[in-house]
């Protein structure tokens, strides 16, 4: 009996999973099927496959461990190892992230990829180390568009006075003030607040309107594409520095591959999303007066949020790169 016990115990110890598996806690605020979840689930699939099960991922979704800001705080401490986080909430940790949330900076997806996958994007990811994050790469929410339940919007004048939910971002607050709205910071999710009329509208990429069924409670959508919204896929720097180089390389590559997969997946679905939203009854303004919107935010580069030298320097480099 004792011999049998030893054999069973040995098999358990050396099965490759019982004691050797590394568990990565990865936090997102969105529900399954959302953009953040798609990149997270692809990363989980890739890293578990490539590590032969020695690295496993536990995804905490639907704000189960807090808001994006709270997840970032846990990542800083090393209590959570990784996160797929919208760009906006980072600006309270490192102001350099405000550069990628600058309104109308990217004209299309190709330009966004070229900049963020290149040296300027690397500069942002590297800067995050000073706040305790290991920046891995950029996946995406996508270009953000305005919805509301009050009025059709074609020009900035139509926005005046609308109570628009914004994420916890000083820059996003300033953008909507400049456009004439009444910006209202509010954590995710916001369906109930929209349904009850606590807020008039919100701004997000097309996938959000579909997955969160905003067509049920928002009548009007305007394809403003005012901000390209990336996710910044990050790890805890404190945790990252405990890993072996080969583990770091595998995690970095798997997250990058997952990000590319998710960006392509997101873009392929956008035409069908527009069609669905129209079928569901949303009135879509596909050709707003973008020049008028741009004119309203032209002076944002001069506000205090961009006056820190490293932020101002990178913004000018990025504005020059996208000409």
TrEMBL record:
Keyword set includes Cell division: no
InterPro entries: DctP_fam (IPR018389), TRAP_DctP (IPR004682), TRAP_DctP_sf (IPR038404)
Keywords of this entry: Signal, Transport
Protein's recorded name: TRAP dicarboxylate transporter, periplasmatic binding protein, DctP-like
Signal peptide: 1-20
Pfam name, any one: DctP
Gene Ontology cellular-component annotations: outer membrane-bounded periplasmic space
GO biological processes: transmembrane transport
Cell division recorded as keyword: no
Family: Belongs to the bacterial solute-binding protein 7 family.
